[in-house]
Fold this protein.
Amino acid sequence: MSFQEHLTPAALEEWKQEAANVDRTVELAENGFKYRAGSLTYDPTWAEIDSVYQSERLLIFCDGTEYSLLIPKRSFTSEKQLREFLEIAYEKTVGPDQQSPEGRSSWPHIGGTTACE
């Protein structure tokens, strides 16, 4: 069952107007990245990120507490941009002494509800 199927018709309409159509961008920064969603901006450093996961539609950045940053994959302009970002995120969060992933498919995939540990 999808997220939208859990909403009442009024809540779904509000979500479509306020959240679903927000412009999103992801930019690499010197020590991390900047994620903009509408008027909100998040700029975590790589050192603050404890782990990274992905679902079919989301990238999930965990900071080692119960907090996480969810970034829709549609925030990227292309599959190539997404893959390149994942490679950098993997390198910066897992480290150079670990094997580099072979594209998106080697990243941990999750399903359902996730809590960062």
